[in-house]
Every structure is written in C-alpha cells, then in structure tokens.
Amino acid sequence: MNPDVETLDDVESKLFTSQNFQLESGVVLPRLTIAYETYGRLAADGRNAVLATHGYTSSHHVAGRYRPGGAAKGLKDGDIGTWDKLIGPGKAIDTNRLFVVSSNMLGSSYGSTNPAALNPETGKVYGPDFPRITVGDIVRAQKTLLDHLGVAHLIAVAGPSYGGYQAFQWAVTFPDFMHGIVPAVTAPRNVGLPQATQLLIDRLAKDPNWNGGWYYDRGGVATALMQMRVDTLKSYGIEAQLRGQHPEPAALEAAIRELARPWVEAFDANSLVVLRRALETYDTTPAFARIKAKVLYVLSRTDKLFPPTLAPGVMAALKAAGVDARYVDLDSAFGHLASAADGEKWAPALAAFMAELMALERSEPPTG
Question: What is the DSSP string of 310-329?
Fold first, then answer.
C-alpha cells in the first residue's frame, strides 16, 4: 500500500452546494446540494478519477468505513461501503492509483437536494411539489460536482442498478469525458412497467398518513415503507444471502425487517416517487452511436430485475453502434445484490478492464 494514500477506514461524507441549477424541464433549482465521498487522491492533471454511482434506494457510501462523525445523513459511523469488495487500496478499482468520487443522486435521501429538503424560496419542504427530474439531470448535477473538485476527465463511470442507468447516461451525454463505463445489474433503458410510478404512489397511498404526499407533519409513512422495503429486499435476493445465518423462516423474516429498518427511517417516500418518475424518459439506446467509451456490462445469473436474457440484445446493439463492449455473466445466487455480495467473483474482470482504461489514459494525449 502506498503510504501517501489514506486508508479507507477514515471516510467522510461531504456536501457540495451550487446555485441556480437548471433542469432539463427548464425549472431552476435555486440551490443544488449533492452529498458525496471521495477515496484516494486526485492527480495534478485531474485525469485519474472514477465516478461511482449508486442504486435506486441505496446511498453513495460505496467503500471503506466512516470516521467517527463522518457518516452521511441517514447512515451511521462504522457502516461499510456497498462495493467495498471492489473499491479500495489494491482492489479492482485501486484507490492507491485512482481518485474515486461517489456522488449521491439528485433527488435521493442521503444528503442531496430531494423532496424532504427545504425549498429556499418558500422555507418549506418541497414534498410532492419537488420538480420532475430526469436521469440526465442527475448526471449533469454530478458533472457540476466533478468540475468543482477539479476532475478534468474520468477513467470510468461505474455502478449497479440505477447507478448503471447513470453510467449509460454519462456515456451518451458526455461521450468525451470518460474512457469507459461499468454498468452492472442494469440496462441501457427503463425495463419497468409504464405505469410503475402510479403503482408506487398507489401503494404509498394505502398508508393512513400519506395525505397526498404531505405526510411530514403526520409522522411519515413508515408502515408502507417497511412492507415495501422488505418486499424489495426479497426481490433483490436477500433471502439467499441471509438464509445461512437464519435458517428458520421466522428468524429470517425478522432479520430482513431489521435490515430494512434503518432504510425506512432514512428514506423519504417522495424521493422514491421522484427517482422512479425520472425513469419514465430514460432510454439511451437511440444514442448508442454517441458512445465512445469502452463498456464492461455485468449481469447476474439469478437477477430477476435485470435477467441475463437482456445481454444478447444489449451487446448486439452496442456492437452495431461500433462500441467496444464486453460482457460478464456473473454466476451468483444473490440475484440483484450479486455485484456487491459476490464482488470477488468478477473483481478480476473489473481489474483487467480498469488496467486497460488506465493504459489508454497513459497512451492518449489529453483531449478534455
């Protein structure tokens, strides 16, 4: 380990704030706040960075452990990052050589501007009046953060699930800004039902405190969120991950609910709606010809949300667009959680891909 690079047992979540951020809709957010973490150190030329993106209901804490008092809003000291098997000193995304920025999504509940935040123009929470955003808006907010940090060019954008959506969006929105993308357990377009947002709202509305999304003075909608989180974790494959520790059905159910509890306490229901609605216009496939980055596409054999049957169509479309893409079929029993839970299984492929991208950076003159 390079003694000049800090270890990842001293992580701190930070906040970046910008003014008057214009959304694709034309609406202007008077204040944009993005929570983020960094690991490693930025090179003098600003070109050794990796952007780590996160999933729909997860946070930007992807590596290491928090220092005392360093945890993001809604998380706690000592929490270990979700991709810690892949990001860190000497790991596939090696923070001895790379500067990793992990950005909380615009609209998410872990410190960034979201529906539970105060609207500085009204002094009240946005609530269900939070403006509609897109995946493109999320990516452009991240670009604003990277510009602030002095990142001139990315080695890669990497992340699972909704984070993979962002990776594909980065590749078509800022095609010259990165050498590669690593979208894992994800797809280049929305694969959810067209009515997914309304179905989500309908489910939340069953909570007696919902009140059209104005539940902040009514104690929240914890009942609805708990059941939703338990169901989500099960669909992700959490039972396979925990069954060895809790073989009895009742004990397994209790363990899942206990795992869900911190999320229920931290996550705003309107954030779920905002981020789900953002996917209604998400489809990068018509813009594949814009992609210049190399692609490492990763799916899990047992993922029900993004099954490996997606791979042939996605890979064929990338190839037809002239994109340098390769595919990893992750043999894991952990479903949608596989990229993290079985990180060691695909770490060699990721390490080789990152080495290729870093070699490309060394061989090419800076172009921005």
Answer: GHHHHHHHHHHTT--EEEEE
